[in-house]
């Protein structure tokens, strides 16, 4: 299933570092949409070492779409040291977190901004296979 | 105390340098403006570009270079102030207005600018043109992105790939 190169257009001509600087100004949704234009642009968003996926940008404010997005980000990643930030006000239950960790074995840092994880206040993840290191904060 | 010596150039007219585009047009510009380019800065600090010499820029044509210099001349005073922390709101608003208008251009010109800003390492301009392209993409569907960026209508094969992309990245389409 080779991707046929598209017509010459300026996106195809841009060197990777410029392309990445453009992607850095896009959210996860838009930078994924560009991926439809060519195989290279499909890979590029995931070359970023830091990606903010903001739950506010999701119409469905549950974890399934969010986890799918995270999975996309990590599935084709070729670099280590992935930093991952959730947007503010993400509410989720413990099984969601478990699924996220399970799906994202390459994830090393997860920073959660004003997340509500229900009663209690202890996040317990079954993270045997994940690389997430405990973070203070 | 002593009267400033003439001929030293420090208090007189600003130092000028000459840049030569790929199509051999010469541009004389203040060193401070040209120095917004990291690539040119060292050469200029070393005293290059003065007199009849000129700095050749084999990757930048005259139309693009004149546009780049327009940006540099406008931004040089603020840059000389170390990013202009003490610039007034009016100054900043004026620069912003200039920037917005500056990138309101044909895509072919935009492409040349992107490459020139990259080759010459002009940080502010690199960021400005990247933001412009990002704004052209932001919040659009793949088909809208294609149209905005001047892609032809998709072939059946490309259409199939677009459908596959939608399946693979369903979350992004919601």
UniProtKB/TrEMBL annotation, chain A:
SUPFAM superfamilies associated with the record: F-box domain
Domain of life of the organism encoding this protein: Eukaryota
Domain F-box: 11-44
Pfam families in UniProt: F-box (PF00646)
Annotated PANTHER family: OJ000223_09.16 PROTEIN (PTHR32153)
Name under which the protein is recorded: F-box domain-containing protein
Taxonomic lineage of the native organism: Eukaryota, Viridiplantae, Streptophyta, Embryophyta, Tracheophyta
Encoding gene (name): ga28824
From TrEMBL, chain B:
One Pfam family this sequence matches: Skp1_POZ
Domain SKP1 component dimerisation, chain residue ranges per copy: 124-163
InterPro entries: SKP1, SKP1-like, SKP1-like_dim_sf, SKP1/BTB/POZ_sf, Skp1_comp_dimer, Skp1_comp_POZ
One GO BP annotation of this record: ubiquitin-dependent protein catabolic process
Residue ranges of every copy of the SKP1 component POZ domain listed in the record: 16-75
Pathway: Protein modification; protein ubiquitination
Signal peptide: none
Family named by the database record: Belongs to the SKP1 family.
Subunit note: Part of a SCF (SKP1-cullin-F-box) protein ligase complex.
Protein purpose: Involved in ubiquitination and subsequent proteasomal degradation of target proteins. Together with CUL1, RBX1 and a F-box protein, it forms a SCF E3 ubiquitin ligase complex. The functional specificity of this complex depends on the type of F-box protein. In the SCF complex, it serves as an adapter that links the F-box protein to CUL1.
This protein's name: SKP1-like protein
Gene, per the UniProt record: ga14711
